[in-house]
Amino acid sequence: MKQPRLAPLRDRAACGTCEFGEMHESNDTQFYCRRRAPVLVNSGKGAVFPIVDENDWCGDFREEVDAT
What does DSSP say about strands 62-66 and 2-6: parallel, antiparallel, or unpaired? Predict the structure, then answer.
């Protein structure tokens, strides 16, 4: 079953118009830009997040992945 998840944010400038326009990284986590709130993504675990409203996301930073 395929579920949406955030793809890597490769271009910070693309999120520059958002309230949360920056991406912050640590050893194994990343904050990806979301218009309403930053979303914590565990970059090493392939965490999958449901997209409730696609308009919440800055640009098209999501991809379809096989969650199985």
Answer: antiparallel
